[in-house]
Each structure stands twice: as C-alpha cells, then as structure tokens.
Design a protein that fits this description.
By secondary structure, the chain is mainly β. The protein has one domain: Lipoprotein localisation LolA/LolB/LppX (outer membrane lipoprotein receptor (LolB), chain A), CATH 2.50.20.10. 14% of the residues lie in helices and 50% in strands. It has an eleven-stranded mixed β-sheet with strand order 7-8-9-10-1-2-3-4-5-6-11, covered by helices on one side.
C-alpha cells in the first residue's frame, strides 16, 4: 500500500489553496528498482481532480499487468482483472502537505525547481517543467527506488466525475482491509 501515500500527494497537490491545480491528466511510466537491483516497469495513465472538499484520482495501469485504482477522498478501490479481484480499503490519515505544495507551486511559477515533500519516513521529490509535474522520485520504506515520469500532462481540464466511479464486476472477489 506504499503507493497510496504517493496518491495522496496528488490529491493534496490538487487541494492546495493558492495556485493549485483543479485537475490533472497524464500518462505515466513508473520504474521500481529493488534493493537487490531487480527492476520492474509499469505504464498507464491517470486523472485527478478536486471538487469542493472532495478529491478524486484514477490510475489505469496498462503494462505489465492491467490494474485500475480509484481514489475518492480517503477511500480506495483497486480492480485487478487478472485476479478477478477488487480490494477496498480506507486511508485513515491523510498527510498534511498542502502548505508545502502550495509554497512549491508559488516558487515554480517562475522556475522549474524540484521540491521535496516528506510524508512519514519517505521523501518525495517532484520535478516540474513549465509549471507541471514531470517526475516524482522517492525511496520507499523497503528501500525500493521509484521514479514516475509524467508525459502529455494536461492541467485544469474538465473531467466528468463519473470517471471516478468504480464498477466492480459481479464475478470479482471483494477483499476489504
């Protein structure tokens, strides 16, 4: 569930007050290198938006396996078609990084500086280009080095809220944490 902390960065990123993004859509490539130097690469696309006090994100993993992650406020639904499984969980504590991200956004209006945000035991470095995030890098608590590259990023676009509604097929096993 280390990925859920990363998702919360984007939700809070959207929810920062001044200069904040109201929505973001992007394709991504994610590279995870283990402490033993094993590497796995993922790719897909994601969308996220903030509407009032509600925050939504949708991550569609395309390769190497299909997986869809819905993030609605503190609730998370992970659909895994290969396993015919849906995992439903809740994040109890959302890290309070809105102020840090808001300051970083203000600084990045003029430059393409990278910012580092600490959540728990993990430092996330977010790199910007032309005011949009292009790379997120961090080492998780298991010493995996993760890099996420964002491409074709669109900011402040209209996204239908129904996009973030998970439809769990009736034949899926449902696991609740």
């Amino acid at each position: 569930m280390r990925f859920l902390a990363f998702l919360s960065i984007f939700i809070l990123f959207l929810n920062a007050d001044e200069g904040a993004f109201k929505s973001i859509s992007s394709s991504f490539a994610q590279i995870i290198k283990s402490a033993e130097n094993d590497t796995i690469k993922y790719s897909g696309n994601f969308q996220a938006m903030s509407e009032g006090s509600n925050n939504f994100a949708l991550w569609n993993y395309k390769t190497p396996i299909a997986k869809t992650i819905y993030f609605i406020n503190n609730d998370v639904i992970i659909l895994e078609p290969d396993l015919e499984q849906a995992v439903i969980t809740t994040i109890d504590e959302m890290p309070d990084i809105s102020r840090v991200l808001n300051e970083a956004l203000a600084a990045n209006k003029q430059t393409n500086k990278a910012i580092t945000v600490n959540i728990g035991e993990v430092d996330y470095t977010i790199s910007f280009q032309n005011g949009a995030p292009v790379k997120i890098a961090y080492t998780d608590t298991l010493d995996n080095k993760i890099e996420i590259f964002l491409q074709n990023t669109l900011l402040n676009i209209d996204i239908d809220k129904l996009t973030f509604r998970a439809n769990i097929p009736t034949n899926y096993d449902v696991v609740r944490y």
